[in-house]
Amino acid sequence: MSSPVDKMLPPEAISMISRLEVQARNVVEGFLSGMHRSPYFGQSIEFVQHREYVPGDDVRRIDWKAWSKTDKFYVKQYEEETNLRTTLLVDVSESMQFGSGKVTKYDYACSIGACLTYLLLRQQDAVSLLAFDDELRGRAPSRSKQTHLGTILSVLAQQKTRAKTDIFEVLRYVADEKSQKGMVVIISDFFAPREGLFKGLRLLRQRGHDVLLFHVLDDQELDFDFAGTTRFEGLEQAGNLTCDPRSLKEGYQEAMEEFLAELRRRCARNVIDYQTIRTSEHLDAVLRHYINHRVGLSKSKR
Question: Which of 14, 66, 91, 221 is the most buried (most CB within 10 A)?
């Protein structure tokens, strides 16, 4: 007989949390150790003054130029702005369960969320989570403690797909709830009414938030390399279709490219960072794009 704890967080969910946590740690730490970059990706830091070095200070902050002139050790002091506050929005709608290989779009979205959370908490930034389809299905509050990663992963592990994506109401909720400017990261396949999506994104930008879109798609959704008579089972109440996919490939790919081009164009117009991601893509490529964006943004504000 299963316990209440098992029903709330079954063994397979606990296994998923452990896997994602280890994966996030390995990807982030391994990736950053090869970058030799400052850990302050999201914060704006300005030099204020020197003070004499005392045992226990971070030796990386020693000003060696000052030492060469005075023969004494001084460390640089900085005035750090309020830590970055990030809201992760992860799509848990039925279409996210599609996967032509071992990994579904939702699996991959959770991996992105885990890695970003680990990275942000590592630099003491606050992260919150909202899981959504046509409404909010799960949430984790804004916290900056390292242990918060487990909370976020447990919320993701408990989600069950059940509905279509209706993103506008979710984005409006975030815009109304998050009065303090921060970063909003949306991880989705964006199979949702377009005008509602674009209206919601504009609203977030009008409220002063930085917005990043990670557009997660399966390889087959982009390449459409199906052969022979195939039965397509529609997700999100789309119905079923049996056909020869070769006769549809050209028209399908044209429609997909138009969809992606419109997303890129609208995001560029509203100064929103956008990336199309294949589920076969390595996570370090996703992090590279994210970090380069944050570093570039931080430099532009100094």
Answer: 91
Number of residues that this document lists for the chain: 302
pLDDT at residue 73 in the model: 84
pTM for the full predicted model: 0.77
Residue with tokens 């994104």: 201
Do 131 and 159 form a contact (C-beta atoms < 8 A)? yes
Q: Is 56 left (phi over 0), alpha (psi -120 to 50) or beta?
A: left
- Secondary structure of 176-194 as H, E, C letters: HHCCCCCEEEEEECCCCCH
Catalogue the E-assigned strands of the chain. Answer: 45-52, 74-80, 85-91, 126-132, 136-143, 183-188, 210-217, 230-233, 240-243, 273-278
181 CB-near residues (< 8 Å, 6+ apart): 207, 208, 209, 210
Cα distance between residue 1 and residue 3, in whole Å:
7
Give the single-character DSSP code of 159: -
- Indicate the CATH number for domain 4-33+83-301: 3.40.50.410
What letters, b where the CB count within 10 A reaches 16 and e where it falls short, cover 42-79?
Answer: bbbeeeeebeebeeeeeeeeebeebeeeeeebbbbeee
Question: What whole-number distance in Å separates Cα of residue 141 and Cα of residue 150?
Answer: 12
pLDDT band, very low/low/confident/very high, at 46 (cuts 50, 70, 90) = low
Domain extents for the chain?
4-33+83-301, 45-80
Q: How many other C-beta atoms are found inside a 10 Å radius of the C-beta of residue 202?
A: 17
